[in-house]
Amino acid sequence: MAKHADPFNPTPASASGPVVPAPSIAILPAPTAELAAAVTGGGGVVEPLSDTTVGVVLADAVGAAELEKVLDEHPGIRWIQLYLAGVDQYEHLMRANRAREWTSGKGAFGQPVGEFALTLTLAIMRGIPVFPSSRGRSAGGRRGERPCTAEMWSWSAPGVSAPKSCGCCRHSPTTSLWSGRTTGRCPERTVTDDGLDEALAGADVVILAAAMTGGTEHLIDARRLALLRPEAFLVNISRGPMVDTEALVTALAGGKLAGAALDVTDPQPLPEGHPLWAEPRALITPHTAETPDMVAPLLAARVQENVRRFSAGQPLDGKVDVDEGY
User: Fold this and answer.
1) Rounded to whole angstroms, how far apart are CA atoms 225 and 182?
2) Cα radius of gyration (the chain)
3) Where in the chain do CATH 3.40.50.720 domains reside?
4) What's domain 110-284's superfamily in CATH?
5) Does residue 315 have a cis peptide bond before it, meaning omega lies within 30 degrees of 0?
6) pLDDT tens digits, 51-94
7) Are 23 and 307 in contact (CB under 8 A)?
8) I want to staple 259 with a disulfide (CB 3.0 to 4.6 A). Which of 29, 124, 154, 275 is the partner?
9) Axis-axis angle for helices 292-312, 33-41 (nearest 10)
10) Strand ranges (DSSP E) for the chain?
11) Model pTM?
12) Can the peptide bond before residue 275 be classed as cis, meaning omega within 30 degrees of 0?
């Protein structure tokens, strides 16, 4: 009996069998030249949403309600490629669509985000917030009291590594917390969630690069801020709600923390007149750890590889664990 191709697994039934059509992939909200080339380069074909659509690639922000409607109207969709590493906005939708495969950009943006984490770390340790040009007032205060040989701790999802981006480390972390030095040595130890409090007490720099989930909201709260030494620095390149903003304001104002560099805040953006704007120990950037120009080729490479894997029936890269939320 002849074997028939599975439309959701476009691998030919046999070498001598009929050629299976390339998977139909829709790019939302609209195709871009770079992503269209990535889809075709991976062996797929870019087409508008239809009954034959088996995959969806998000090129930009698409609301959860809008995406839910797309999935409801097109039951043949088996794979959704999200455009960012963070997927918290689609959490309920993913849990309602467990039969479908969800992939994100996690790991794909490690280099630009890691570089920016180091940039913020150096800036806050060198006292950039108090330089005249950074706040439009006279110079004063600390200006880098020690060289950057500090031990760095990063609460991060696997594949996010600040030291790796500058060549200091050849390995990405495999668990939640790692430590290393910026002087070219690989991380000295890796600990799990249970070791966080102890690690914070000895850290010089804490870099937050975790996924935003229910378990990481206010990960750094008043209690954990109190564990840090007054000479320690906090860098957040993940999500604003990971830090209790009110507790951070209190810690900075009371000199309980040497400084905080924040690419993300809670709320975001900070309202005019918020205490953090006037805090000399705070350095705030507008969620610019990666730029569209940096992300576009990285996302395209992820899409091309995943289309190739999807076409071959292989495991997809950056697959989201729906239960864990990242």
Assistant:
1) 23
2) 22
3) 24-107+293-312, 110-284
4) NAD(P)-binding Rossmann-like Domain (3.40.50.720)
5) no
6) 999 999 999 999 999 999 999 999 999 999 999 888 989 999 99
7) yes
8) 124
9) 30
10) 24-28, 45-46, 53-58, 79-81, 101-103, 151-156, 177-181, 189-191, 205-209, 233-236, 259-262, 282-284
11) 0.75
12) no
Q: Which of 67-81, 161-175, 278-292 has the lowest mean pLDDT?
A: 161-175
Whether domain 24-107+293-312 has CATH 3.30.470.20: the reply is no
**Is 211 exposed, middle or buried (CB count within 10 Å of its CB: 0-12, 13-18, 19+)?**
buried
280-298 CB burial, b ≥16 within 10 A, e <16: bbbbbbeeebbeeebbbeb
Calculate the alpha carbon distances from 306 to 45, 95, 176, 262 in Å: 13, 21, 26, 32
Write the CB contacts of 96 (distance below 8 Å, at least 6 apart in sequence). 68
